[in-house]
Amino acid sequence: MFHSQLDTSNLTDVDAQLVELKKSQAKIVLLYATAAEARTIFERATPLGLTSEKYLWIGTQSVRGTQTSVTGHTQPGMLSVNFHTVSNAMFAPRDDVLPLIIQLAPKLFGAALLLLPANETMSLESTASCRDVDGPPSWDDGAKIYELMKLAFVKGNPFHVDDGHDSFFYTFNKYGTLKNSMLRISNLRKNPKGGLYWDKVGMFTNNELRMADVEWPGDKANPPQGTADKFHVKVVTLHEPPFIIVSDVDPDTGRCPGNQGSICDWGDEEIDTPEGGKLNRTLWKCCSGYCVDLLNKLANDIGFTYTLYKVRDEKWGLKTETGWNGLIADLINNKADMCVTSLKLNSERARDIDFSLPFLETGIAIIVKIRSGVLSPTAFLEPFEYSTWVVILLVSIQGAAFAIFIFEWVSPYSFNMSRYPPPDHKFSLCRSYWLVWATLFSASVSTDVPKSTVSRCMALVWAAFGLTFLAVYTANLAAFMITRVQYYDLSGIHDPMITYPADQQPPFRYGTVDGGNTHETMKRNWKRMHEYVQKNRFFVDNITAGVDAVRNDKLDAFIYDAVVLDYWAGKDANCELMMVGKWASMTGYGIGFPKNSPHTALVNQHMLQYQQKGDLERLANFWLTGACSPESHGQTQSAPLGVENFLSAFFLLGGGIVGLISVYTKFFKVGSIKQNHFY
């Protein structure tokens, strides 16, 4: 909405204000002026095209005056809104004011007195005095009468038939003004002789509008649309999914596949000519994404066309000693009228360009890689503590083996070597160990069973122990053999691994995009981090390079815009990327404009409407939602065990084979030596 107050005695000021009116794209103009002032304004507005068929002027009663015909500069087809009287349809024309007041005032006063309670008395003599020193003059009974007069009503003005004397009632609101005004709407028409005259075309009364046919500006049957003229703007952008997604155009049609997106100027490309030379031409790409959909919606609702192009230095905009670069430089130098991409708002940028209302909230976040867990070589020992294994191996097994052997040794009915050794059964300490190990692991091997009852009972007790041990071990082993996903669980930008990366072993590696808002924020607020990244050259050219560096373990973490990182984590093919920690440096994404751009207010008006209607939320749900949800990145997860996860069992088997081969080789050599010595 454009508002201006004109001094018609200063024609230079009038011309300047009318030019601003035209720039505002307002098409319906409400004019409050005297008839003489209106003639001057129309005289200066006509050469500017402000009285053409695209505009509709609506004048007040003072613009129309008392004349029924019009001469001089004006707008044929304009409207005027007139009260029947000089004060909200309460009074007749000026020469009839006194008789009307004399007639209506007693009626209204009497109607108010009728509303007094029957037993209440009131003095009509005023107690107010101009000499009151305690405050403004007051009259309590007069104030009561005034409140009652606002509740009273009188019938329509008898001096004007159109007032509807029998149906129209003058009632008042709490401020003492009329609730319902009676307005006459007139249209400036052309007469057959070529002149102009005012013709009544409508009435507004009792909150009801009655209209006849109107002769609109330009002799049109319909009123002007009231919308701004289509204008063309140049929009600068930069590739960053999901806000700006760049793809190739259809080679057959030269358009975006499926007509989804907008054709954008993506720089120059060099091609070969038939003569064998080189020729530079514009490289056209297809741009789509959140910001393109938002831009198309603004273009349709506001009414403009646009050319979308990529900033040539491919920089977001960082202020250096020589000035701004990237997107911000194009806006400052008026190469572009808008910047539409994931451009973050900050105070330094806002000093040199204008921003729209933010269309999305964001901050600075961290993304890391999820690494599949690998079981350690000693995973098969983890179901029990090491002290438990010591007790089992050095105490329980040894005690059981010696107990079975000793009970068998001293038994008078089995293996009493001191008295009568049996020739067919030789139960030794080694066979006792063999029995204990085989029973403990439920091995299907041949064992010698002791003969004595006590030894057999001891073997049964050991078998019960072995059953319990094996059951508990197996149950716990299933839990310990679950692979655990591993990642750097950082608390945020102030995590010690980020603040003191060189103190970690090995040093923690992280980076960000060179020349972006995150880089600028890091340089301004987190100087230690900036020096570390700059010293180790961990800056990357764009978001794609940063995410790939994390995937390929070239970086341990990547710091960037939270919304963009969340999109990349959600769209990752293997769901191996994860955002960690709290967001920092909260801000928002906005559309950039040159300073004092005429488009800023118009875009802000529509952005507010989009927020209220949920259009921005629908765009976010469509473009920013990925398949990888944060819930899928749990601390643990079940997965098939590969060879690397079961190395402990293979190490145990391999160690046993190597050990047995060593023992066999040793005994084979000893046997060969004895045999050779014998011969």
Automatic annotation (TrEMBL):
* Protein's membrane topology: Multi-pass membrane protein
Q: Which UniProt keywords apply?
A: Cell membrane, Disulfide bond, Glycoprotein, Ion channel, Ion transport, Ligand-gated ion channel, Membrane, Postsynaptic cell membrane, Receptor, Synapse, Transmembrane, Transmembrane helix, Transport
Could you tell me one molecular function GO term of this UniProt entry?
Answer: ligand-gated monoatomic ion channel activity
Q: Which residues form the signal peptide?
A: none
Cystine pairs: C575-C628
Q: Where is this site: Interaction with the cone snail toxin Con-ikot-ikot?
A: K523
Report the Pfam families cross-referenced here: ANF_receptor, Lig_chan, Lig_chan-Glu_bd
Sites marked Crucial to convey clamshell closure to channel opening: L490
Keyword Membrane annotated: yes
The main location class comes to membrane
* Domain called Ionotropic glutamate receptor C-terminal: residue spans: 270-626
Q: Does the keyword Ion transport apply?
A: yes
Location in the cell: Cell membrane; Postsynaptic cell membrane
InterPro entries noted in UniProt: ANF_lig-bd_rcpt (IPR001828), Glu/Gly-bd (IPR019594), Iono_Glu_rcpt_met (IPR001508), Ionotropic_Glu_rcpt (IPR015683), Iontro_rcpt_C (IPR001320), Peripla_BP_I (IPR028082)
Q: Which residues bind L-glutamate?
A: R349, T518, D561
Chain segments annotated as transmembrane: 386-407, 459-482, 646-664
One GO cellular component assignment for this chain's record is: postsynaptic membrane
**Could you tell me which residue ranges the Ionotropic glutamate receptor L-glutamate and glycine-binding domain spans?**
274-333
What does the sequence similarity comment in the record state about its family? Answer: Belongs to the glutamate-gated ion channel (TC 1.A.10.1) family.
Q: Which PANTHER family match?
A: IONOTROPIC GLUTAMATE RECEPTOR
Protein name listed in UniProt: Ligand-gated ion channel
What is the native source organism of this protein? Answer: Ancylostoma caninum (Dog hookworm)
